[in-house]
Design brief:
alpha/beta
């Protein structure tokens, strides 16, 4: 018998916070710095944020706010203690909706949309295996990402008892959603994505249109210019992890570099509040999961779970934001691997769409699943009206 979920509230021990402040106060800053973001995280921005983290950032208030906004639970699924947000729906028979984050964000990716989505859905937002309060997980050596997907699938079915549910995700969450739709199509109503998944980059350029090749080339060029983080994490994660686990400034610098690179305006202050940025960094710091969160890059490089030859035949909605790395892909490329039934090109936004453009993101998720319900109702009505023979 599966044990029922237990209640969970974030509470970071005083000793952890005291240790953090000592480390921030004793920071030894590097020399030979270059201004701006060209060579990585801007030193002036980082020093200002670290000063605020040390002397102004109100963690206890933020902790209480997160707990109030995002009621959390923990349950054992497929042998793993999974931390997740669970918000009951406002209306009966609401579709369960699983929201999946990626790296280097956390379950807080959806903090601005969970209450809005709970008007139409029963909302579940897990900390992925290896992340946050789920923590490090011993994953399959042969199919680590597929193993993570199975853990989350078992959370939804074995623990929470859902026969059918929808999924929405981006970054690593996009890949996990596609794996679940491939492995368990009978349980998945549809999936909503903000990107095609990293495996699409391996598409054979000799078998695509000119527009598709141009987009794939642009993605590869951008990766060469801005993909050092992924190459390090996919090849030498254990060399980097001790520094990030030991120094809060190193951790912040590594994560901020991605948030800056993957933001719409190229200006963090225009895309995210300082509190939102530090809340996410704090989740990594207090759970000490930066090492396990990065390991997925190494594991999936050695044993990919998806290829450009896999095809998801469950209905797919795509909300595409223009500053996503590579920009908006050609629809034909998406349709090579996905059964696309909704395609929305957004005017603004980037990689962390639910944080940067929460209203547009939530509206598109809602409309996609409403459309699926309307299509299903129309099919039922057509069958009902069909004359008997």
């Amino acid at each position: 018998m599966t044990a029922p979920p237990e209640g969970f509230r974030i509470y970071v021990a005083d000793r952890v916070l005291d240790d953090l402040h000592v480390r921030l106060q004793r920071t030894r800053w590097s020399r030979l710095e270059s201004p701006g973001w060209t060579l990585g995280t801007d030193r002036a921005y980082l020093r200002d944020l670290i000063g605020y983290w040390h002397s102004g950032y109100p963690w206890r208030e933020r902790e209480a706010l997160i707990n109030e906004l995002m009621p959390q639970r923990r349950a054992r699924a497929h042998g793993v203690d999974v931390h997740f947000v669970h918000i009951a729906p406002r209306r009966p028979r609401a579709l369960p909706l699983l929201l999946l984050h990626g790296w280097p964000d956390s379950f807080l990716r959806y903090r601005k949309v969970v209450r809005e989505l709970a008007l139409d859905f029963e909302v579940i937002v897990p900390s992925l295996p290896g992340f946050g309060f789920t923590g490090p997980v011993e994953l399959s050596a042969t199919q680590p990402t597929r193993h993570s997907a199975e853990i989350l699938y078992r959370l939804m079915t074995d623990v929470l008892g859902f026969d059918r549910f929808g999924i929405a995700g981006g970054d690593g969450g996009s890949v996990l959603a596609q794996i679940m739709a491939l492995d368990h199509p009978e349980n998945i109503t549809g999936i909503h994505l903000t990107d095609l998944g990293w495996h699409v980059g391996g598409t054979d350029v000799h078998d695509v249109t000119h527009a598709e090749r141009r987009w794939l080339d642009a993605v590869k060029s951008q990766f060469v210019a801005d993909g050092a983080y992924a190459m390090v994490q996919a090849t030498r994660p254990r060399s980097l992890a001790p520094a990030l686990a030991d120094s809060p400034v190193a951790l912040a610098s590594w994560i901020l570099d991605r948030f800056h690179s993957w933001s719409d305006a190229g200006d963090l202050d225009k895309s995210f509040s300082r509190d939102d940025l530090l809340d996410n960094i704090m989740i990594y710091w207090v759970s000490n999961t930066i090492s396990s969160s990065m390991f997925g890059y190494y594991a999936d490089r050695r044993s990919p779970s998806l290829t450009p030859h896999d095809y998801v035949d469950r209905p797919v909605g795509l909300a595409l934001f223009p500053k996503e790395p590579g920009g908006i892909p050609p629809r034909r490329l998406a349709e090579r691997t996905l059964d696309v039934v909704r395609w929305t090109e957004m005017p603004h936004g980037s990689h962390f769409a639910a944080l940067e453009e929460p209203d547009r993101y939530a509206a598109d998720v809602r409309e996609f699943f409403r459309g699926l319900r309307a299509r299903a109702d129309a099919r039922k009505e057509a069958r009902h009206d069909r004359p008997s023979v």
